[in-house]
Amino acid sequence: MSEEIHTILVVDDIKDNVLMLSAHLKAKKYKILQAFNGVDAIKIAITELPDLILLDVKMPQMSGHDVCAQLKQHESTKLIPIILVTAHSETSEIVKGFEIGADDYLIKPYNYMEMLARVRSMLRIQDAQMQALEANRKLDELNQNLEEKVQLQVSELAKANRLRRFFSPQIVDSILSENADDILKEHRREITVVFLDLRNFTRFADSYSPQIVIQSIREFHAIVGPIIFKHQGTLERFTGDGLMVFLGDPEPMENHATEAIKMVEEIHESMLDLEAEWKEKEYNLELGIGLATGEASLGTIGFEGRYDYAAIGTVTNLAARLCGKAEGNQILISERCKELSDVANIREMGDFDLKGFSQAQKIYELIHS
């Protein structure tokens, strides 16, 4: 900081002393404030916040020691350096001043060069102290901002991890780029629901060790999981040996029926090698698949600490019934799914009565290419 911007408060009950000291300091381009008693000195110091105070000790009513003590206890002025000016050089007088917070002493009659040297020294210390305080303030602000950013990033990461339990990575990125709370609000939309289920799994689970059973499920999930996300499917839940997936939400998808059929075809082809391995081990596990298209109510369900994103409605029941009716390596499709898809390799199987439906449902089978 340059000397020109420093402000010095000169305090003395003798006007000539104030004027003389002020003149010396003004000659060095300092800005000068003046007070002729302790009360005014305190008011000016608190209001103007000078960079340095030259304070006479011997003043009537309120001594320089009293003024110094009050200013050092006041929050806004406690860091302002104070040079006490006194005609007494007794050690006790000097010690008393330092004990109440004075930063330096100037003995009358003072040497002009010594006075300027002490002023410059105090101002350098003050500048360094102010710079340190400003640096600490900026550091605290930076740390606070950093902490807030870290908390925000942790929150966003936790949110992303929760979303990745159900949605493909590309859908998660889209949701996080917008307002996830709005996107996941309850709503109604036409979607295609897919149920995947392993045939003969109950007998298999009763016949083999837990290690083999769990490992087989993991092998199954390792194949179908990436394919589901590749086709932007939303994984609603695992059902032991099966999965429920839907396409067309939370982001609308115009061709969700066609995309769902392409997804299950790829799953079927990818499962053939694993099913062959299982057959060699006499597991006799084969995958049955059911697809249905229709409107569903969608949104988050659950309780604190355990929420799921769910599709609820007749379409989910129909997909589950079709999956239950499908034999191993068979893919059954609802009439609405067939109508919306542009897949040619579909044949009609006829009308069937399904549990929970008052009218017979027309069922189609996807013919493997």
Would you mind describing this structure in some detail?
The protein folds into two domains: 3-135, Rossmann fold (3-Layer(aba) Sandwich); 169-366, Alpha-Beta Plaits, CATH 3.30.70.1230. The chain contains twelve helices and 13 strands. The chain has helices spanning 15-26, 38-48, 64-73, 91-99, 112-163, 169-177, 180-183, 201-207, 210-230, 256-280, 314-325, 335-340, and strands spanning 7-11, 31-35, 52-56, 82-86, 104-107, 187-199, 234-238, 242-247, 286-303, 306-312, 331-334, 346-352, 361-366. The strands form two sheets. Strands 6, 7, 8, 9, 10, 11, 12 and 13 form an eight-stranded mixed sheet that branches. Helix 2 runs parallel beside helix 3 (64-73) and helix 9 (210-230) packs antiparallel against helix 10. The longest helix is centred in the middle third of the chain and has 52 residues, at 112-163. It is rod-shaped and about 115 Å long. The chain starts with 6 loop residues before the first strand and ends with a strand. The model has no long low-confidence stretch (mean pLDDT 87).
